[in-house]
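Hi again,

Forgot to attach this to my earlier email, sorry! This is the prediction with manganese (III) ion bound. I've pasted everything inline since the attachment limit keeps bouncing my files.
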Amino acid sequence: MSFTLPELPYAHDALAPYMSRETLEYHHDKHHKAYVDNGNKLLQGSGLEGKSLEEIVRGSFGKNAGLFNNAGQHYNHLHFWQWMKPNGGGDKIPAALEKKIVADLGSVAKMKEDFIQAGTTQFGSGWCWLAVKDGKITVTKTANGENPLVHGGKPILGCDVWEHSYYIDYRNRRPDYLKAFVDHLINWEHVEQMFTAAMK
Ligand code: MN3
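Structure tokens for the complex follow:
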């Protein structure tokens, strides 16, 4: 396979004021594009050509740092655009997913609090996650381009806490960005799709 930059599933200004057109122009059109372009160059001769993206992410982890960083970030951003939508967030969580969140994490409010805390305490660049691991939903965080796929889990929701994701709109206020993501941007239907697939 080769990596391809997807179109955003909404207009660049559709997530304003919580994520601006300018942020999405840089983040999607430039940052994600760079991961795609660099990943395609590094895939050549890696021995992983022809594998799926998930297999490339797992197969390069700990072995081919350059390819892993770009393939991991390509995977993370492919889903990040879909994990958001205009008028998202809040408590409108599909029933089966909500039930599992309550069973594994205590309550929806606790899940949100733990997710924001994970993103806030990730030192430097990285991501915070909801992932399915051993049949349970967990809250985790990872550095740089890593994701739960390389730690035995399956990501169902992730938030990018690299500065390029929030500095234009929030400057240094990462917790405010995370709260806006949770309250106004999450596309719970996409989370539910990944949850259902992860539980199979
Ligand atoms: Mn990013």
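The chain is about 50% helix and 10% strand. Helices lie at 21-43, 53-60, 65-82, 95-105, 108-121, 167-170, 174-185, 188-198.

That should be everything now.

G.
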